[in-house]
Design brief:
The complex is a heterodimer of chains A (about 230) and B (about 100).
Chain A lengths: L1 E5 L2 H8 L4 E7 L2 H4 L5 H17 L5 E7 L5 H4 L11 E4 L3 H10 L4 E4 L1 E11 L2 E6 L15 H4 L20 H4 L6 H12 L33
Parallel strand pairs in A: 2-3, 2-4, 4-5
Antiparallel strand pairs in A: 1-6, 6-7
Chain B lengths: L1 E2 L10 H18 L10 E2 L5 H18 L31
Parallel strand pairs in B: 1-2
The chains are: A alpha/beta (about 230), B mainly alpha (about 100).
Chain lengths: ~230, ~100
Amino acid sequence: MIMAKPKPIDEIIGYIGNFNKIMVAGCNGCVAVCEAGGMKEAEVLASALRIYFTQQGRQMKIDELSLTRQCDKEYLEEIKEKIYDYDAVVTLACGAGVQFMAEMYNDKFIFPGVDTCFIGVTEDQGYWTERCQACGQCVLATTGGICPIVRCSKRMLNGPCGGSASGKCELSVVAGHDIPCGWHLIFERLKKLGEIQRFGEPAGDKDWSHSRDGGPREIVREDVRP
Amino acid sequence: MAGCLEGDCHFQSGNLRAKKRVGYVKKLLESIGVAGDRIAMYNLSAGMGPKFAEIAKEMTEKIRELGPFLKKSTPGAESAAPKTTSQASGSASLAVA
């Protein structure tokens, strides 16, 4: 799922300081699971903003709600009347949700309340890690289910690079914590699967036009279109 | 916030989690210009009545020393914000002593 983290509250205060009526809109999708932008977080943020502006002597209307998702029109339409009671919206959805809301209500100020980080997994409560960079052409079938695009710091398609030691990436020093070498993981996994010969078969050129290099991407599925 | 003694919680690690949440609320309050001292975590058992009274007194004195919560008098400003219909009941809100 898409992972996000809450923006510093002073940054959000800076966005909305010139407005009087604010809607804080959570999203019950991915950002709720990673505890950055669901109903609970919307309530906490709205409450904190009310406290802050009351302390400043401002009488602001700050309310909260949370939508099922903000990346689908039918859920965004649920606020089509309510939104006009407000001057601006702070949405806790991912970057996609923020933009979709801004497109639908293009006469409203829509501000992001979270920083969208990556597509990843929940390792443990409060601990999320990246697994996919949405390159558009999955290579996991040939790499033992471990993605070299995201797990290798250099996105090498044929590794390891020579900079890894004891299974750790050389960028661990820069990051300040251990980064497992993606290609070491791939090697160990292929060995476990008895598929080590794949390691001797270099991957060909990757067509990066499926990734970001071709501009914003789209998927059209005629079979499921209305 | 009062939790069980550490290592003796009916909810196992519930009191330790509560301690972390209190730390989060402290930081959040400080980030919006409110003294983090307005909330504190204490650990005591159900049989520690005198200790509870002592803590309650200590906290009351601390809050009295910090003064009124609102720096400026704007009656009703916080409560003036109507609640929206989709608010989940029983979900978390800021606990400010």
